[in-house]
Design a protein that fits this description.
By secondary structure, the protein is an alpha/beta fold. The protein is built from ten helices and ten strands. It is globular, with a radius of gyration of 19 Å.
């Protein structure tokens, strides 16, 4: 089977490459290889690659900038997805597409099920929801939340850098979801693909937390590993105080019951995976 990973230079793309099964005929493209806003270039590259399966980890992910550049976010997160689907329609292949919790509005009283209706609050969320809408019944959608990886561009590493530089760190305490280690997500994606799953699935680490909760755990683990020399003051703030440029769902935990039952395994708790990520971060230096 010829497998193409898009977004290979991102944190999930890298995790997919590191965890890929050895028997795969695998290729990968990143932002330096194909401009996802140039749909003609993308179509031409897909003809050359001729994959049986595409795992689409490419995305416009600048949450705040999407409010100013919604057209650009839509080109990458929705229009390019339509081109990937078109290519798979032509060859009889399958698309595995990665989306996120920001397609939901955060008003639910329980964790979101895969078939719950999307109702995004932000330009970024709208672009991701539009991308989802292009998928066919035989394709596979995997939603995740609060993704992070060693060496990646993410909120955990941003917090760690602040802890190294500042005597006080602030973290939002009234947004709740599930932090998710990209390596664990990659393993789930490969497992779903191996079992020829189709439809909508969710994957996140077990448990829920706010960024404030993550900051407290991060400080403890980073100190124990010698990544920081002291624990700074960690002050909780509200979403209103943070004055973020775009609205995020206040509660966006994902119900992963279907995924876990389908694969016959359990997700690790977010704090256990946070430690694994920090151990990997220490090895990176």
């Amino acid at each position: 089977m010829r497998v193409l990973i898009t977004g290979a230079s991102g944190q999930l793309g890298g995790a997919l490459l590191r965890t890929s099964p050895s028997h795969m005929d695998l290729n990968a493209i990143g932002a330096d290889d194909v401009d996802f806003t140039d749909l003609g270039m993308l179509r031409a590259r897909l003809v050359v690659e001729a994959p049986d399966l595409i795992i689409n980890a490419a995305a416009y992910t600048d949450f705040g900038a999407a409010e100013r550049e919604e057209d650009l976010a839509r080109e990458v997160n929705a229009d390019a997805v339509a081109v990937l689907v078109e290519a798979m329609e032509d060859t009889g292949g399958k698309l595995v597409h990665i989306s996120c919790d920001c397609v939901f509005d955060g008003a639910a009283a329980r964790a979101y099920l895969p078939d719950n209706a999307a109702n995004p609050l932000s330009a970024y969320g709208r672009s991701k929801a539009e991308g989802e809408a292009h998928l066919r019944q035989q394709d596979l959608l995997v939603r995740t939340s609060w993704l992070y990886e060693a060496g990646g561009n993410n909120f955990v590493r941003a917090m760690l850098e602040q802890m190294l530089e500042c005597r006080e760190v602030v973290a939002i305490s009234d947004q709740i979801s599930s932090p998710t280690w990209a390596t664990g997500l990659a393993r789930t994606i490969w497992a779903l693909a191996a079992r020829k799953a189709s439809g909508y699935f969710h994957h996140s680490d077990a448990g829920v937390a706010s960024h404030y909760d993550v900051a407290l755990a991060l400080a403890e683990e980073a100190l124990a590993l010698g990544l920081i020399e002291r624990i700074p003051a960690i002050r909780p703030i509200t979403t209103a105080e943070a004055q973020e440029p775009a609205r995020r769902p206040a509660f966006s935990a994902l119900d992963c019951t279907t995924t876990r039952a389908f694969l016959g395994n359990e997700a690790a708790h977010w704090r256990a995976n946070l430690l694994l990520m920090l151990q990997a971060e220490k090895k990176l230096g």
